[in-house]
Amino acid sequence: MEDIYILGIESSCDDTSAAVLRNGYLLSNVTASQSVHEAYGGVVPELASRAHQQNIVPVVDQALKRAGIAKEQLSAIAFTRGPGLMGSLLVGVSFAKGFARGLGIPMIDVNHLQGHVLAHFIKEENEDAHHPPFPFICLLVSGGNSQIIKMNSYKDMEILGQTIDDAAGEAIDKCAKVMGLGYPGGPIIDKLARQGNPDAYQFAKPNIAGYDYSFSGVKTSFLYSLRDWMKEDPDFISHHMNDLAASFEKTVVDILMKKLIKAVKDTGINDVAVAGGVSANNGLRNAFRDAEKRYGWNIYIPKFSYTTDNAAMIGITGYFKYLDHDFIDIDAPAYARQER
Description:
- This protein is α/β, with parallel strands linked by helices and 340 residues long.
- The chain has 10 helices and 11 strands.
- It has helices at 45-67, 86-103, 112-118, 168-178, 185-193, 216-232, 236-239, 241-267, 282-295, 311-323; strands spanning 5-10, 15-22, 25-33, 76-82, 107-111, 123-124, 136-141, 146-153, 156-162, 271-275, 298-300.
- The longest helix has 27 residues, at 241-267.
């Protein structure tokens, strides 16, 4: 059987990434991050798309070189079509279209969220493959999304619940910004929380029916509490930085886990995975390990390198779709929002 080489391209936000896979095994995964946004406390879409234009060719070139293959060996190009920032997506989509047409090979569009979930299936040479069996429940948590998904097969994603307002990662980033911690806030909160008392402060938890999430109320509760405490002590944040980070992180993790535990219990599916940028958070990872002991779950936690946006997850999704001959026409547009 002839080898299947997939080039994956990811450009949905502020990371330009390219990966090469051979028969589902990862050969290279190259990512160029953008530091330009730190000064603004968040991603500036116009600056992001310009940086992608500068990064895309060298990143793809490096991915091919590290994989040790020529572009003519590629079987197909998989790319993130959405959701994400439209300007950023357009750079990756346009490059993929031009490259695929030039090489005369098919194109495969990938849903960014599906890619995060299927990151669990990335295989590396000389490594035991440890991935969840279908069906499994996946908690997908990132800066833009918080969802509980029932994965019936690689292409059958059943969304059981999702955020009705802010995503968990978004709430953490915004509270980090209020505390003057810089951007991105998630990793900073995570680091501080490890040295703080998670039970030092209580913040309001929403009461939403079913499996849906809401994080705007937690954020508001945090802001109002800070405002009141700072009236008595203007330096309250610097005096209680670690405890604030730990308490807020615990609140967010508790909200995430409560709905997830309910979904696992109701479906009777004990294979439970976590994916997305927030899956790098230590508090959430520990909560998963606790649930494994307490409820007898089989848990699946991704490598840190596969939690953030990366092209390896786009490549593995593309590989599955390639096997199904699930290709896309060259005139398919990018989409910024999740198609429902």
